[in-house]
Amino acid sequence: MTTAEEQTSVVPRDGGVNLGRTSTHRIETTLRSLREQRGEVSTGRVLTLIVSVRSEEDLESVVHGANEASREHPARVIVVVHDRTTDEVYLDAELYVGGDAGAAEIILMRLHGELADHADSVVTPLLLPDTPVVVWWPFTSPRNPAGDSLGALASRRITDSFSDAAAGKGTKAIFRRRIGYTPGDSDLVWSRITPWRGLLASALDQRADDTVTSVEITGPSEDPAVDIAAGWLAT
């Protein structure tokens, strides 16, 4: 998948394997070798999680979050970094199996040059067969996640309106998500108010005979969770 001359090197780094100027075929064969060496199997993975980011800012926290999620849902995690700062076309990768990767196989891929615009072609050979595909945009996400080339591969697409600078703030962010909504889209803003919804539902259950005539919700104007909560109460 790269037009640059392939010069693949395998260098252990922080418990992982670093593949420079590599290919999807080399990534897959190296993963297979790592699993055999460490007695790991891929049949226990229940999904493929693709994480799409535009830069390496906060990359460590993103990988950590995906890794933590995989402890409950063992997965192959493919982190795609889109690097459009160069005209040279090539692919770098870091692979982690077992150890700090927990219950996941983590593939950290950096797509350079025009390759960054063809992430779907790069990740497709690495998807686990017969398992769901989930795509997560921790920061900037497309207006129509299902229409995105990566989103089209997935049955579930996860965005975060609060962290997406391109989406705007507050009501504007939620409106942007609404007009591009397709069944299978989820936003982490909804997940963040789950504890609050549980507390409120429990409180109202204790006053089941009372009638609620009005509700006032206050919160930061830039937080779309305020509008999400209001919409939930209005339904």
UniProtKB/TrEMBL annotation:
Every Glucose-6-phosphate dehydrogenase assembly protein OpcA N-terminal domain range: 66-163
Coiled coil: none
Biased composition annotated in UniProt, kind: Polar residues: 1-10
InterPro entries: G6PDH_assembly_OpcA, OpcA_G6PD_C, OpcA_G6PD_N
Stretches assigned to the Glucose-6-phosphate dehydrogenase assembly protein OpcA C-terminal domain: 183-234
Residue ranges of the region described as Disordered: 1-21
Pfam families: OpcA_G6PD_assem (PF10128), OpcA_G6PD_C (PF20171)
Superkingdom, natural source: Bacteria
Protein name: Oxppcycle protein OpcA
Organism: Corynebacterium variabile
